[in-house]
Amino acid sequence: MPLGIPVSKTRYNIDLVFANLFFGANFSFYVSLTRNYLDFQQIFMLQVLSAAVFFIPFALFSKQSFRIRWRDAGNILIVTMLIVYGWMYMLLWGSSYTSPIDASIISTLGPAVTLITDHLMHPHKYIRARVVGVVCALIGAAVLLFDHGFVLTHGSRAYGNALVLVAVVAIAINTVIIKPQLERLGTLVVMGWYYIIGLAVTAPFFWKYIAHTQFLKLPLQAQAELAYILILGTVLPMYLLYRGTEKLTSVHTALYRYIQPVTAGILAIVRGQAVFDTANVVALVFIFAGVVLVVIGYKYYVRHGLPPVGSDGKLRA
């Protein structure tokens, strides 16, 4: 098991594996649907609605909901906005302009963002060596963002990549912020409240996109892709991601994100949607090297129980 996770937590590692497999496949279907059949706003509203239908009953009929404190409610509100608008909306918007391979490679920045957030909330884990790793990861993202120039023109591939980057930052931050509530209230209750709030902040603005759309008249392939996104690409992996986050560390949650570009890349190539180019390879190498540096530093200090600050008050290298 990665980073020495006990065998008793194997199921939660498996949760994270499958969550990222399902998320990785989404990129190919996002591109296919948004470029041929539906506006991204339609898919966005359907995602929120399908998740709400599944998760809200767990919040309404659970005794754990009565244990929610004001601090819990504040965290859930913040994370709901990060999930609904920061992740779902931005990811769909960006995927409508970029390629599945670019989008999935950018998603691997998640570990670096998670660890930066983890440092801001738990400074005792920070060491200088991790700065190098984060810089490498950001260089990798810049390679994709500026591969075709340094201007983020609206509707360009770079513009789509930038939107995907915003989505990745949002999903990475939220898994750190919400962990205390997941541990205290349980995954299903927290996610139920996500979508009570999520439906309230999206339906007034986006219901019009699906109110008169005849989805059953879409081609069978489009219906199948949409069904995948809503069930296997949203409801199930969201549950698996947060159940794994509840039981494991933020570092583990972040590292399993490397499954996504493999899944997305294979599916995009098989479906003729994209090919790996030099920019993809260079970006992936930088991002992967960056996260390896960050995690090696984290493992070393955790394993040896060393404080990140020496007796002289300086950060250890």
TrEMBL record:
Protein localization: Membrane
Membrane topology per record: Multi-pass membrane protein
EamA domain segment(s): 17-145, 160-295
Domain of life: Bacteria
Transmembrane spans: 12-31, 43-61, 73-91, 97-117, 129-146, 158-178, 185-206, 226-242, 254-275, 281-301
Matching Pfam families: EamA
Keywords: Membrane, Transmembrane, Transmembrane helix
Family membership: Belongs to the EamA transporter family.
PANTHER family the UniProt entry points to: EAMA DOMAIN-CONTAINING PROTEIN, INNER MEMBRANE TRANSPORTER
Protein name (database record): DMT family transporter
Naturally occurring in which organism (per UniProt): Alistipes finegoldii
Source species taxonomy: Bacteria, Pseudomonadati, Bacteroidota, Bacteroidia, Bacteroidales
